[in-house]
Design brief:
Oligomer: single chain
Number of helices: 5
Strand content: under 5%
Largest sheet: none
Structural class: mainly alpha
Number of domains: 1
CATH topology: Diphtheria Toxin Repressor, domain 2
Number of strands: 0
Order of helices and strands: HHHHH
Shape: elongated
CATH superfamily: PSPTO4464-like domains
Radius of gyration: 24 Å
Helix content: over 70%
CATH class: Mainly Alpha
Distance between the termini: 44 Å
Length: 111
């Protein structure tokens, strides 16, 4: 809508419709949407922390991941961590292996 008057009329119409509607389910749906985005952000940050801890040498975390996610491949995970550690030592190299490790962790978390 380009006209300010048309937008105002439409908002008034929506307001009159909303008076007769129970708003609790709508508020709950909006809350679920917000919480879903928050949970996704938290999961993303957790994966980043895991990746960084694995690259830093936290072998206890690797054992915990393998225990919690039985579909994870120990050999593949170890290889990705090893490659990311090698890559971290090089200054001019992009963090390609770290991204692969992050994607692998994402994949095993979804299963």
């Amino acid at each position: 809508m380009r006209s300010h008057g048309a937008r105002r009329r439409q908002m008034q119409y929506v307001g009159t419709l909303m008076r007769s509607v129970d708003v609790e389910p709508i508020e709950q749906a909006l809350m679920d949407i917000e919480q879903g985005a928050y949970r996704q952000t938290q999961a993303f940050h957790r994966l980043e922390a895991w990746r960084d801890r694995l690259i830093d040498g936290d072998d206890a975390l690797m054992a915990e991941i393998l225990e919690d996610y039985p579909d994870a491949d120990r050999q593949r995970l170890s290889q990705l961590v090893r490659n990311a550690r090698k890559e971290r030592g090089k200054e001019d190299a992009p963090a390609r292996s770290a991204r692969h490790l992050f994607r692998y962790l994402q994949g095993i978390m979804k299963t």
